[in-house]
Write a structure and sequence with these properties.
The protein is mainly α. The protein contains ten helices and no strands. It starts with a helix and ends with a helix.
Length: 234
């Protein structure tokens, strides 16, 4: 058999194994994630400019002075607490991968663990580099969390949870359900953080970019390193 025939045979075997184009796709995913991460930082820099900062403050002040009612504050507080990064976020980061390991889904366990870790790391980088101050204490509905305001750790937790669930869902019906319900959940957590005056609007947008960037980079690196192929069952 000639070398050309061997090459064609190997390419055919790779396609039959279901992994054609893994390299280009991996590179594209890493590049996409990198661009999203850069966009997160660029957005963070814009919130430090006077016009954007003034607009953000007006929005939070309007909500605090005119839109707050007792039952809605109680609801927003409860929704916000479902995505506390220090407790819920760390619990999901460890608990979900363990559950997936028990289900013999090693690849998905690694994807979820790394997605959470990457999103939290990127959010922390954003907080340290941007250093945005929290909204004024006079607007708080409850004591705000510590640390910088941009991006929101709560929304990062909610967003990476939903994106990870969508990524590891096998059946299309479950994936679509996760997208619809998950989008509603992320919006609810984001709205609660702004309503409670813990964050400004751009903070929650930056959080979603953190989650998307982390998932894209993780999936791309898994494809490029060959781990995706080795950990897949069958």
């Amino acid at each position: 058999m000639s070398s050309a025939q061997v090459s064609r045979s190997e390419a055919s075997n790779g396609a039959a194994a279901g992994h054609p184009g893994a390299g280009p796709r991996g590179v594209l995913m890493v590049l996409t994630g990198t661009v999203l991460g850069v966009l997160m930082l660029v957005l963070g820099l814009t919130v430090r400019t006077s016009p954007v900062a003034a607009l953000d403050l007006r929005i939070d002040r309007h909500i605090a002075l005119q839109d707050r009612v007792g039952w809605l504050t109680t609801l927003a507080t409860a929704v916000s607490q479902t995505a506390t990064p220090e407790t819920v976020g760390i619990g999901l980061m460890t608990g979900l991968p363990l559950l997936l390991l028990l289900l013999r889904r090693r690849l998905d366990a690694l994807r979820v663990f790394c997605a959470f870790g990457g999103a939290f790391a990127l959010a922390e980088i954003g907080k340290r580099l941007i250093g945005e101050q929290r909204p004024p204490a006079s607007l708080w509905a409850m004591p705000a969390g510590g640390g910088a305001s941009y991006p929101s750790g709560h929304v990062t937790t909610a967003a990476v949870l939903v994106i990870a669930i969508v990524a590891v869902s096998n059946a299309a019906v479950w994936r679509y359900t996760a997208v619809v319900l998950g989008a509603g959940y992320v919006l609810a957590v984001a709205a609660s953080r702004i309503y409670l005056a813990d964050h400004y609007p751009p903070d929650v947008i930056g959080s979603v970019l953190c989650a998307l960037a982390a998932v894209c980079v993780v999936d791309g690196l898994l494809a490029l390193t060959g781990l995706k192929r080795r950990l897949q069952p069958g």
